[in-house]
Amino acid sequence: MNFKEHVGLNFIRPDVNRPGNYEFVNSGVWLVSQFKQLGVKWNRLAFSWVLIQPEKGIFNWLPYDQIVDTCSKEGIEILATIGGHFDNPPVPAWAGKTLAEVIKSNPKALEVFIESLVQRYRKYIHHWEVLNEPADFHKGLTVTDYVDKILKPCYCIIKSIDSNAKILPCSYRHLPVIGNKDVFWAAAREYCDVHNIHIYVDWGIFRKQPTTDEEVKEAMNFRELMKEHGEEDKNFWVTEIGWWGTASLTGSIYEFYRKDPISRIELKPFYTGKEIIEHPIVHREDRLRAEWMKNLFPRIFSVPGCEKVFLWTSMDEFEGGYDPNAIYGRSVEGKAVRKVDLWGIIAGDKTWRKSAFVLSEILKDP
Hints:
By secondary structure, the chain is an alpha/beta fold. It has a domain at 3-244 and 305-316: Glycosidases (TIM Barrel), CATH 3.20.20.80. Helices cover 39% and strands 14% of the residues. The chain contains 13 helices and 12 strands. The protein has helices at 21-38, 49-52, 62-74, 99-105, 107-121, 134-137, 143-161, 183-188, 213-228, 252-256, 273-278, 280-300, 354-362; strands spanning 7-10, 42-47, 77-82, 127-130, 166-168, 195-199, 236-241, 270-272, 306-311, 317-318, 327-329, 340-341. The protein has an 8-stranded parallel sheet. It has a two-stranded antiparallel sheet with strand order 8-11. Helix 9 (213-228) links the parallel strand 6 and strand 7 (236-241). Helix 1 (21-38) packs parallel to helix 3 (62-74) and helix 5 packs parallel to helix 7.
């Protein structure tokens, strides 16, 4: 199997007031060059409404223009996610306080953004994902709201501009928490071309063996759910999949553990940038992820209908950029710290981790 046509990599989060924003704005073109060197042909790229349209009628396309143009020149296809991942605030302040409020009181604002976005990149982007994870990010939405007032208008706008475009809904597991998920299938049937799921196994638990039985099982279960609802003629994409142990030492890992259950190393709420890059847990979990990836891709693509899989994620997110001497983590007793997220196969100091080299080998032409 030619994995290059089917394996993608999530870019870096553009979200305003989140740690990935700095590298997104300042190193986006460089990061595309790393995709090229890795052999990655598919880039899942989030288009933050908050970043692009900070004021009504004013658009800032510059960082996206540079990234999209470079992807086009390098032959890298884009899956564009409409909206950021975890912008703070979740929508531009001029449009409303929440997306639920926008679609109720100011729906035209969202429609103008979508039309402007698709028109601008219609020659370069032909795959669109409608929102990232509304269950976690867009509180107050219902499943019906999502389908009727977001997915359907997006579908119609995109198809009117590019009739050959393919539209994905958000991850099925991350539909809004309000309402019955079962209504999604019939309501969305004519308004999506490909289905979508995110898979993270054993969230909050260090896994000792890099096997992928559970990931494959989740993919198979989702395929069966599609069949139950008469959607077996469509493919599905896993737009996020990842090894939880590479999450932030001071974030998800620190929340679940105060002491590493394997090495018995005491965890701290904050570290210097250099300490994070060199931390033995970070290295161990990346080695496990590398082995897990070797097992994952051949197996998950054996699931009928599984067309593309996007690994989370390309690069660490250090607030303000990586600084070996700066303090990152969570504030304790008023100590000034920066935020950090460590899922990257490329470290914050812009060096490749073991998992990056393994991905490059996986993607080599057969």
